[in-house]
Design goal:
The protein has 27 helices and 6 strands. The chain is mainly alpha-helical and 599 residues long.
C-alpha cells in the first residue's frame, strides 16, 4: 500500500484515508491508518504510548493477582520488578510478532490464561507460603534445617523459578504446533461460525474483570466511559485547528486541522479521569476509593534504572506436574490468540489471516513464552484483546504504531520510576476503559456472522448454544471446584483449566457442531469467507495485494522463486503454485484487475 512519507506535517492526517489503494473493507471501517501506513514519527510515539497505556491495566493486574500465591505479600518493590520485567518482555515479543510473526498490528503481553494453572501449581503443599515471620520454611518445599533465616526475596523467587520452568517447557509444544503447520491444518475446518463465538467470548468472558475494576468506584469508571464515548464517537469527526508546515515549495507554516479526538480517545480520557482523581485525592474527600496515592509506595521504592535479564531470579526449575498444568494454559492461549488474529484483521481492514500467517503467529507466541519464562516474568505472553479493541476505537491500525509502542514498553521497562508512576492509575479508570474495549471485542465477534445465513436455524443453534455453553460451563466449574476427578491429578488440572476457559469451550463446541451438523458451504458462510481471504490456487490481483500485509518484511523475491518454500508451513508461499515469468508479475497484458492470477 502506498503512503506519503514526509510532507504536509499535521495536514496529512486529515486526508490519510485516501492514501494508497484502500480496500472496500478499509473504507467501510473508516480506517485512519492502514496496516502498512506510516504516520509521522510524533504520531507514532503518541499512538504507541496509547497502546502502552491500554495494555497497562491487564499487565500490572497479573503480578498483583499473583503476588499472594508467590508469597510476595506487601513487598511493593518485588511487585515493581515483576511489572518492569513483564513490560520489557512484552515489548520484545510484540516486535518479534509484528516483524516475523502474524504481521498484524497486535500487541503481545501477559495473559490471564496462565493464571489458573499457576495458582494450581502454587497450591501444592510444597509451595504453601510460610507463616508470617518464618522464612525458614517454604523455600523449595522442604524445611531449612540450618535454622538460619532465609532471604525474604528467595521465598518468592523460588516459586517464580518453578513457574518459569513450567512455562518454558510447555511453550515448546506451542512452537511445534505453529511452525510444523499443525495449527494451520486445523484452520481448514474453522469458518466464521467457529470464529464468531470464540471472539465473542473473548469479550464476554472478561466482563468480570471489567466489573471488578470499575466497581471500586462506579462514578470514576462512568466518567472514563463517558469521555471515551464522547471522544471516539460524538467528536471523532471534529478536527482541532492548529499550525502545520509544508516542505513542497520551501518550508512555511499554514493553518490546518488535526483529528485529535479520533486518534487519542483512550489516552485523553484516562489522563483527564486521572487528573480528576488526583484533585479529589488532594482534597482528601471522605470515602473516595479511587485515590491516586494508594500505590505511592512503589514509586518511592522503585530504582530509576533497572535492566531485566534472563535468569535474574535464578535457574528455572522443572517439574512434571507443573509442565502438564501449563499445557492447558498454552492451549487456551492459542485458542484466544487465533480469535484475536481474526478480530484484529477485521478491525484493520485486512483480509482474514492465511494459514502461513497463523502458523507463524502461534509459533512466534511460543517463542515469546519461552523468552518470558527465561526472563522470569511469572507469566507467558499472548495477543492482547484490549489493544485489538483499541484499534476499533481509534481507527489506527498501523503496524509501525504498535512497534513504536513495543519500543516504549522496552525502554520504560528499564525505567523503574516511570513504570511505578503508572501503577498509581486508579483501578476504576482501568475498569472503565475495559468496559469499552471488551464491548468492542464482543461486537467484532458477532460481526463475523454477516458471512453466514442467519435465516438458517442450524446456524442460529450453533452460535447460540456455543456462546451459552462457553459461559455456563466455566461458571459452574468455578462455583464447584474439584468437580473434575479422573484419579490423575495432572489430567484433572488440564481438563479443569480447559473447561473453565470460555473461549475454548465456546470455540471447541462451535467447531464440533459446525463440522458435523449438515449444511451447505454457502449456508455456513464458507464461500464468502474463502472469497475474502482468497484461495490457495488463484486470487484476483486486489486480493493478492491485500494479502501482502502478511508477507515477511524481506527476502520475499527469493522465497517466491524457491519451489521448496511451498512446503514450509510458515512461508508466505505455503501450498501455493510456484511463480514463473508472467505469473510473477501478477497482471495480464490488459491490466485487468478482475482476472485471477496464480500467486
Amino acid at each position: 500500500m502506498d503512503h506519503e512519507t514526509g510532507t504536509h506535517g499535521l495536514a496529512k492526517v486529515k486526508d490519510v484515508e485516501n492514501q494508497g489503494e484502500s480496500t472496500p473493507q478499509k473504507k467501510a471501517l473508516d480506517i485512519a491508518y492502514g496496516i502498512e501506513d506510516v504516520p509521522p514519527w510524533y504520531l507514532c510515539i503518541l499512538l504507541g504510548f496509547q497502546h502502552y497505556l491500554t495494555m497497562f491495566g491487564s499487565t500490572i493486574a497479573v503480578p498483583l493477582l499473583l503476588s499472594p500465591a508467590l508469597c510476595i505479600g506487601d513487598d511493593n518493590l518485588a511487585k515493581s520488578k515483576l511489572i518492569s520485567t513483564i513490560f520489557f518482555v512484552s515489548g520484545i515479543c510484540t516486535l518479534l510478532q509484528t516483524i516475523f510473526g502474524v504481521r498484524l498490528p497486535i500487541v503481545q503481553g501477559a495473559t490471564f490464561s496462565f493464571l489458573a494453572p499457576t495458582f494450581a501449581i502454587l497450591s501444592l503443599p510444597q509451595w504453601k507460603c510460610p507463616a508470617p515471620g518464618n522464612t525458614t520454611f517454604g523455600l523449595n518445599g522442604t524445611q531449612n534445617f540450618t535454622g538460619e533465616p532465609a532471604n525474604n526475596d528467595e521465598v518468592w523467587m523460588v516459586r517464580v523459578r518453578e513457574i518459569q520452568g513450567a512455562i518454558m517447557v510447555a511453550a515448546i509444544f506451542q512452537v511445534f504446533l505453529g511452525f510444523s503447520g499443525i495449527m494451520g491444518l486445523l484452520m481448514r475446518f474453522i469458518g466464521p461460525l467457529v470464529i464468531a463465538p470464540t471472539i465473542t467470548l473473548v469479550g464476554l468472558a472478561l466482563f468480570t474483570a471489567a466489573a471488578d475494576f470499575a466497581g471500586r468506584h462506579w462514578g470514576i469508571a462512568a466518567l472514563t466511559i463517558i469521555l471515551i464515548t464522547l471522544f471516539s464517537q460524538y467528536l471523532r469527526n471534529v478536527n482541532i485547528p492548529c499550525c502545520g508546515y509544508s516542505r513542497d515549495s520551501g518550508c512555511h507554516c499554514h493553518a490546518t486541522s488535526f483529528p485529535l479526538f479520533k486518534l487519542f480517545p483512550v489516552i485523553m480520557s484516562m489522563i483527564l479521569a486521572w487528573i480528576f482523581c488526583a484533585i479529589l485525592t488532594a482534597a482528601n474527600v471522605r470515602g473516595f476509593t479511587a485515590r491516586t496515592d494508594d500505590r505511592i509506595g512503589v514509586l518511592q521504592q522503585a530504582p530509576w534504572f533497572r535492566f531485566p535479564y534472563p535468569g535474574q531470579w535464578g535457574v528455572p526449575t522443572v517439574s512434571v506436574a507443573g509442565v502438564f498444568g501449563m499445557f492447558s494454559g498454552v492451549l487456551s492461549s492459542m485458542i484466544e490468540s487465533i480469535g484475536d488474529y481474526y478480530a484484529c484483521a477485521r478491525l484493520s481492514g485486512a483480509p482474514p489471516p492465511p494459514t502461513h500467517a497463523i502458523n507463524r503467529g502461534i509459533g512466534m507466541e511460543g517463542i515469546g513464552c519461552i523468552l518470558a519464562g527465561a526472563w522470569g516474568s511469572g507469566n507467558g505472553t499472548t495477543s492482547y484483546s484490549e489493544n485489538v479493541g483499541a484499534i476499533g476505537i481509534t481507527k489506527v491500525a498501523s503496524r509501525r504504531v504498535v512497534q513504536a509502542g513495543a519500543i516504549l514498553a522496552i525502554l520504560l521497562g528499564m525505567l523503574g520510576k516511570f513504570g511505578a508512576l503508572f501503577t498509581t492509575i486508579p483501578d476504576p479508570i482501568v475498569g472503565g476503559m475495559f468496559c469499552v474495549m471488551f464491548g468492542m471485542i464482543t461486537a467484532i465477534g458477532v460481526s463475523n456472522l454477516q458471512f453466514v445465513d442467519l435465516n438458517s436455524s442450524r446456524n442460529l443453534f450453533v452460535f447460540g448454544f456455543s456462546v451459552l455453553l462457553g459461559l455456563a460451563l466455566p461458571y459452574w466449574l468455578n462455583k464447584y471446584p474439584g468437580s473434575i476427578d479422573t484419579t490423575v491429578p495432572e489430567l484433572n488440572q488440564i481438563i479443569t483449566v480447559l473447561l473453565t476457559t470460555s473461549m475454548f469451550v465456546g470455540g471447541f463446541t462451535a467447531f464440533i457442531l459446525d463440522n458435523t451438523i449438515p449444511g451447505t458451504a454457502e449456508e455456513r458462510g464458507l464461500l464468502h469467507w474463502n472469497k475474502e481471504s482468497g484461495s490457495n490456487a488463484e486470487m484476483t490481483l486486489v486480493q493478492r495485494e491485500a494479502l501482502k500485509v502478511y508477507d515477511l518484511p524481506f527476502g520475499m523475491n527469493l522465497i517466491r522463486r524457491a519451489n521448496c518454500t511451498r512446503y514450509v508451513p510458515f512461508c508466505p508461499t505455503f501450498l501455493q503454485p510456484p511463480i514463473t515469468g508472467r505469473q510473477g508479475e501478477g497482471v495480464s497484458a490488459g491490466n485487468d484487475t478482475t482476472q485471477t492470477t496464480s500467486f
